[in-house]
Design a protein that fits this description.
206 residues; DNA-binding; 0% strand; Tetracycline Repressor, domain 2; homodimer; mainly alpha; 9 helices
Chain lengths: 206, 206
DNA sequence: TTCCGCATTGACCAATGTGGTCAATATGGA
DNA sequence: TCCATATTGACCACATTGGTCAATGCGGAA
């Protein structure tokens, strides 16, 4: 059954979700302040507790909501037929940009949520962690190792590629935090990414 | 003049410094709890305020202390004559390991301290930031770009190398957090690092 | 043994902030 | 006009905060 929150106009919904995720991501469950959340979301204290029965319910809602989003968007629409790791990772970064645009803190929130001791509900957590790890492994399991130069360990080659793309991704996020948010500049970043992918292809592949 | 704190036996001193840096790194200046710090350090509340007049004085002490350590150890003993970036970065990682062994949270603390809005004392902060940025640039300024393959942009080549080493470094730190701390295993990690450096040399250099 | 001076403790305090409630009000459609 | 729902924010009991200080522990000198 749909809760009162689920039928909100999506703009207000996202304002609340983003404010809450940001607060939890910064301070963890225990030290996150509902006062801060309502202030950032631009709603009254009473309204928040009209939507969610208490702090923990809000947290769990966020957790399920964001894992769902990630699983659908991120793992759901990857083309597992694409066995060239360079192209597959490029695809992932594009999806990540789309998500970061809509929920700027969703990845931060999930990262700390999976490590937060205070907010247990262990079953839910371990279940989702298992799914995540599983999908993550699948992402890099079936890639075509024959593309690599013969004198290079393919596992290490993969790592270098992953770290490079993480580096670009983090660099974008850092820039983005200091700037006034307009839109994450996909085009410019993708051009940069492609330049790096060219180098990696030229050097690591046959 | 030496404060009461400076003449403590170094074991106790480090216990207090590490406890305080950890707390500030986790929660930022405003939300860090002196109660937590004394609990983690295994001393009484009164003793902490016997050494430091208040929370801010403790914070500033930590800030100066750790920037000093970094500037001395990290930037002070790098061989700027070594223009092969691969070798120079290897050197830096070794020094980083040594520091992380003694002060497991020193880098975390400094990273958040430089961004923390609440604990200003802006002059001190901007001064040290300037020094850091300056040194950081010097670290990568004089490297020998002629070592790179002609068909590779040297700036991008550098970045790939830096990101790879950051990747290894982060991976070690993540492992280390989950393990019972004995010693950060320099040997094993250095062996792994060298394997990666081999690949990078083979692929990016002439 | 006595005594002194410093190291160390933790109960205590006013102040601030917490998650959560609820009676009062705004709002918009019938 | 009226009602049901959306929304507010003052309010509460309670926890935690940074910081104090009278009381105690303790090692060495006499």
């Amino acid at each position: 059954m749909l809760s009162k929150f689920d039928v909100l106009e999506s703009e207000k919904q996202e304002r609340i979700l983003n404010a809450a995720m940001k607060e939890f991501a910064e301070k963890g469950f225990q030290h996150a302040s509902t006062n801060q959340i309502v202030a950032n979301a631009g709603i009254s204290k009473g309204l928040l507790f009209h939507y969610f029965s208490n702090k923990k319910a809000l947290y769990l809602y966020l957790y399920e909501y964001s894992t769902d989003k990630i699983l659908e968007d991120f793992f759901g629409q990857i083309d597992f037929g694409q066995n060239d790791i360079l192209l597959r990772l490029r695809e992932m970064l594009v999806i990540k940009f789309r998500l970061m645009n809509k929920y700027p803190v969703i990845f931060d929130f999930l990262m700390i949520a999976n490590r937060d001791e205070a907010a247990d509900e262990q079953d839910l957590k371990t279940r989702n962690q298992a799914i995540m790890v599983d999908s993550y492994e699948k992402l890099f399991a079936s890639i075509d190792e024959s593309l690599f130069r013969k004198d290079i360990d393919p596992g290490m080659g993969k790592q270098i590629i992953i770290w490079t793309i993480e580096g670009i991704s983090n660099q974008v996020r850092a820039q983005d935090k200091h700037k006034k948010r307009e839109e994450i500049q996909e085009e410019a970043t993708l051009a940069e990414l492609d330049a790096y992918l060219d180098i990696l292809r030229k050097t690591l592949y046959i």
